[in-house]
Write a structure and sequence with these properties.
10% of the residues lie in helices and 38% in strands. By secondary structure, it is mostly beta strands. It has a domain of 45 residues. The strands form three sheets. Strands 1-10-9-6-11 form a five-stranded antiparallel beta sheet, with no helix packed on it. A four-stranded antiparallel beta sheet has the order 4-3-2-5. Strands 7-8 form a two-stranded antiparallel ribbon. Strand 9 and strand 10 form a beta hairpin. The longest helix has 6 residues.
């Protein structure tokens, strides 16, 4: 069965937002990514990197957590469906053929160097480029959420999650794994 193995380091709750004080309910989670020890020895200024994330939850769910509480793979169960968010691979500046799937024009009949050009982008009125027009530009490097992924196996000792299917982003990238119930 094709699966993606996710190394899930434990996270810690470092703050709680309540409806009474902040107008909404959420938990604030801190995540530490361990650095390579050889690289850390070369540069003594580097410390462990911390990543912070706020998860909005219903008030009843947010009350269950306490500051300093550890969240790890025990929060999930095998067979549970999750949604995973991450940053997609960045592909740099791309033209309209690769970015939007434009067909381009024929290589004959008066075309010499513009086979991959977008063609006409509008009429003579209102003589401007509308926002959102599909043109060349930066591709990828955006937040993507994949829903409906099922957890196949959980390894509590090594903090590993095996998920059926593909996850967004690059290898060794950071992912946000959430239960679809919440």
């Amino acid at each position: 069965m094709p699966a993606t193995v996710i190394s899930a380091w434990p996270c810690f709750v470092y703050g709680i937002r309540t409806i009474k004080e902040h107008g909404y309910s959420a938990i604030l989670v801190k995540f530490t990514k361990k650095l390579n020890m050889e690289k850390e020895k070369k540069d003594q200024r580097k410390r462990d990197r911390f990543f912070y994330r706020e998860f909005r939850l219903p008030a009843t769910e947010a009350e269950k957590y306490k500051v300093g509480e550890r969240i790890d793979v025990n929060s999930f169960s095998e067979g549970e469906t999750v949604k995973i968010a991450g940053t997609s691979k960045g592909k740099g500046f791309q033209g309209v053929v690769k970015r939007w799937g434009f067909a381009g024009s024929s290589s004959t009949h008066g075309h010499k160097h513009d086979e991959r050009a977008p063609g006409s982008i509008g009429s003579s009125f209102p003589e401007k480029v509308f926002k959102g027009l599909r043109m060349a530009g930066k591709m990828g490097n955006k937040r993507i959420t994949v829903k409906g992924l099922r957890i196949i196996k959980i390894d509590v000792e090594n903090n590993l999650l095996a998920v059926k299917g593909a996850t967004p982003g690059v290898k060794n990238g950071l992912l946000e794994v959430r239960s679809e119930k919440v």
